[in-house]
TrEMBL record:
Any GO molecular function: glutamate-5-semialdehyde dehydrogenase activity
Superkingdom per UniProt: Bacteria
Location of the Aldehyde dehydrogenase domain: 27-305
Classification of source organism: Bacteria, Bacillati, Actinomycetota, Actinomycetes, Micrococcales
Similarity comment text for this entry: Belongs to the gamma-glutamyl phosphate reductase family.
Top-level enzyme category: oxidoreductase
Protein species of origin: Kocuria carniphila
Protein name: Gamma-glutamyl phosphate reductase
Function: Catalyzes the NADPH-dependent reduction of L-glutamate 5-phosphate into L-glutamate 5-semialdehyde and phosphate. The product spontaneously undergoes cyclization to form 1-pyrroline-5-carboxylate.
HAMAP family for this protein: ProA
Length: 435
């Protein structure tokens, strides 16, 4: 069947003005696309991913022009530096988008993988196999890179993606989705495997949240306000992601040089991401404390410190007195809360009280303490002597990621290809009936 040609048309012109009806019709198209993708062999999906990467590089001028409009509008609207950093695309980031798609193409296809199987005593042959979820909705903000990551992961895992990228990145996402859909057409895969509801604005997001029975799972990716809005209001099943009140604990035994490198990298490598450290916990007997604080101060980090940490700072440092609010804050910028603790027990209690379940790090040379930290921390990712910035699908060998799940159900931590699949039980017999 020939694909309908909707190029150049808005969603309202194609599906009507009512966002609930329009998003519902788009979801129906996504369902058809998902059925086609579910039958597509790996070679076809990989070819589509490689074409997506090629088209993104070939049309980088179009993407940068669109992104420039978003950035200009963001500055006029006094968008925060953290959100502008997430929004910004440049030549290096566009190359990164294309490279992530190529990395996805090189990864094994999870669809059809047998999780377990056996021949039962009665002769029935049982298999539990990985299958696509179907239609995946994603609501995010000011992150055009997420548009590409989600599209790539969805196609590779056999799912259709319905995207709400937000007004801040409207022009960037419109350009990217158009390029990705063109690549799908060239690859002879269903073009509605990737759609955006952005033309419907916030009403489109609300319709996506209410499309139970048409959308199989909804994933929010963004700040606390967005995530909690989706979690509280969606009738579609939700995988909760994102918010990162991330801690680094410098143990008494930590080597100063290692502690400095990890703390500075965790905080300053890219402050606008959810895996950036927000709170530093210092053991009161840690030799590394002064060196770590001096390095953070030199790097330009504004420190919110308790009374004991203030005594460890170099003269003239840029700092504020920490309040209860600081222990709960995800700064997403060059700021960090600092608390001095007297034991591993106290560090674990602090993290248990204030953590959002994302990532926690310990810097230590004590094997017993590291093992206890790993065992007792309830977050999705635990780092031992490594930067929190490694909580990332690409860094952990998953290719691109669709988000970082902070829940304990199904997917947890960086979500790659397998996390966008579910399982199906396949039972084969020879006329078996149950007695």
């Amino acid at each position: 069947m020939a694909e309908k040609d909707t190029s150049g048309l808005t969603a309202q012109e194609t599906f009507g003005e009512d966002p609930v009806v329009g998003v519902g019709l788009m979801a129906d198209d996504a369902r058809q696309a998902a059925r086609g993708l579910a039958r597509a062999p790996r070679a076809w999906k990989d070819r589509a991913l490689l074409l997506m990467a090629q088209r993104i590089e070939e049309r980088s001028d179009v993407i940068l022009e669109a992104n420039g409009k978003d950035l200009e509008r963001g500055r006029k609207n006094d968008t925060s530096p953290a959100l502008l950093d997430r929004l910004k695309l440049d030549a290096a980031r566009i190359k990164g988008l294309a490279d992530s798609l190529r990395e996805l193409a090189a990864l094994p296809d999870p669809v059809g993988t047998i999780v377990r199987g056996q021949i039962l005593p009665n002769g029935l042959r049982m298999r539990q196999m990985r299958v696509p979820m179907g239609v995946v909705g994603v609501i995010y903000e000011a992150r055009p890179n997420v548009t590409v990551d989600i599209a790539g992961i969805a196609v590779k895992s056999g799912n259709a993606a319905m995207l709400r990228g937000g007004s801040a990145a409207l022009e960037s996402n419109r350009a990217l989705v158009g390029i990705l859909r063109d690549a799908l057409t060239d690859a002879k895969l269903p073009v509605d495997s990737v759609q955006t509801v952005d033309d419907y604005g916030r009403d489109g997001a609300n319709a996506l949240m209410g499309a139970r029975g048409k959308v199989d799972v909804l994933i929010p990716r963004g700040g606390r306000g967005l995530i909690q809005s989706v979690v509280k209001n969606a009738t579609v099943p939700v995988i909760e992601t994102g918010e990162g009140n991330v801690h680094v604990f410098i143990d008494e035994s930590a080597t100063p040089q290692m502690a400095e490198k990890i703390a500075v990298n965790s905080k300053t490598h890219r402050t606008s991401t959810c895996n950036s450290a927000e709170t530093l916990l210092l053991h009161s007997k840690a030799e590394a404390s002064k060196q770590v604080l001096a390095a953070l101060d030199k790097a330009g980090v504004k420190l919110h410190v308790d009374e004991r940490a203030a005594q460890l700072l170099p003269p003239g440092s840029d700092h504020l007195q920490a309040t209860e609010e600081d222990w709960e804050t995800e700064y997403l910028g060059m700021e960090m809360a600092v608390n001095v603790v007297d034991s591993l027990d106290e560090a674990l209690e602090h993290i248990a009280k204030y953590s959002t379940g994302h990532t926690e790090c310990i810097v230590t040379n004590d094997l017993t303490n590291s093992e206890r930290f790993v065992a007792e921390i309830e977050s999705a990712a635990v780092m031992v002597n490594a930067s929190t910035r490694f909580t990332d699908g690409g860094q952990l060998g998953l290719g691109a990621e669709i988000g970082i799940s902070t829940q304990k159900m199904h997917a947890r931590g960086p979500m790659g290809l397998e996390e966008l699949t579910t399982t199906k039980w396949v039972v084969q017999g020879d006329g078996h009936v149950r007695s």
